[in-house]
Amino acid sequence: MLRWIGGCRWVCVALGLVACGWGNSGAAAADEPPNILFIFADDQCFETIHACGNDEIQTPNLDRLARRGTRFSHCYNMGSWSGAVCVASRTMLNSGRFVWTANEIYHQSDAERQAGRWWSQYMKQAGYRTYMTGKWHCRANAAKSFDVVADVRGGMPRQTPAGYDRPLPDGSDPWSPSDPSFGGFWQGGTHWSEVVGNHAEQFLRDASERDKPFFMYIAFNAPHDPRQSPQKYVDMYPANSLAVPDNFLPLYPYCEPMGAGRSLRDEKLAPFPRTERAVQVHRQEYYAIITHMDAQIGRVLKALEASGKADNTWIFFTADHGLAVGQHGLMGKQNLYDHSVRVPFFVIGPNVPAGQTIEEPIYLQDVMATSLELARVEKPQHVEFNSILPILDGRSGSPYEAMYGAYLNRQRSIRTDRYKLIMYPQAAKVRLYDLQADPHEMHDLADRPESLPLMKDLFTQFQQLQQQVKDPMDLSETFAHLQR
Fold first, then answer.
1. Average pLDDT of 270-293?
2. Domain ranges of the chain
3. What are the Sulfatase N-terminal domain coordinates in residue numbering (predicted)?
4. Residues 293-327: pLDDT tens digits?
5. Quick one: which of 111, 177, 396, 426 could link to 257 by a disulfide (CB 3.0–4.6 Å)?
6. Do domains 4-403 and 404-482 have the same CATH topology?
């Protein structure tokens, strides 16, 4: 079943008709292969864009992208074998492998990893000139993977001790999000988001003078902490005017056994227990750096128009994972709630319907297989993610009946279109949410006797997913009461 929101989208596929003028490949009608512009955010939750329903945040350029193209409202990251969730997400993205097979790359030698086929190398093989700037965070040499590379960044800007455990209980704050003296995003003299914008403009000027199609991998470190931006962006969001999330908690009851406790770096950004004031301050800085990044995205889009290449360019925007920033008493992304595994995903391109929203679930890493199909590259055997073009042109629904989630050996989940089952093996604890009735995942239904048959069904589906993704963890003994 395809679920579409917006205007008239498709006619009867059963009669063999394809909507909106799309061909069978879903690509543009032009003979030449399309350009690909991939814009990647870091730590950006799906609900932090004005066009996606957040009335507090200002994101005019991302809103413009949403109006110009199609938005996938239920896009997910599969999880992580590492506390640095970014590493797993980006390795899956660039290798095309599911989480546990992507993890195998980290047991290879440097030569084996570099010899392996990465996304950019397939685009090169298809005749694309490839460009990259910003956050990489994969165990491969970006300079060898792309034709043109500038300012490859690590996982996060350097932060000082003053950036943690703040604001203080008395209301004071030893750290400022707009003070360049703290380094961080200003290390080197220019804010890293602005550096990405500078390089993207330069890449597009270069691409405009060439006949070859281009593939650009434009990866912001924003809005990862330390969340810094010029003061005018911070001033746009007075902390005391920002809403505290409905699912705010002073402390998540299973934070220690789930691996997101007091010792985790991300969780140490704000004091324990959480206060509403601390959450407001962190959300102020989160929104400010997103709006600042949005301004740089506007520069990239303007440069694309000036290049003369826009009409035959596909734009993809997404993020590597979300972030809690105070939801459920958590600050980081090392959890399996939607605020941390669900991300924005926009597609803009020739014949892509404007202003449409698709609820079919996908993984953000599906963008690799999608771009390979656009580049007319046969999907490599090792690529486990899927092209979304059949969903875009109405040929099929999602290839995923349920969405898998994992974090270390501490958390597992399965998400259907209605329910989510979260398991904490170290605590032998299960949580169940009805996502239609409870989208903020506030009311755990697991202890209700009438929920047991449903949980058994979900657990059976989860075990099937484990086999598909080669998850080595056996939960049958820990959760024996869920076994059929």
1. 98
2. 4-403, 404-482
3. 34-375
4. 999 999 999 999 999 999 999 999 999 999 999 99
5. 426
6. no
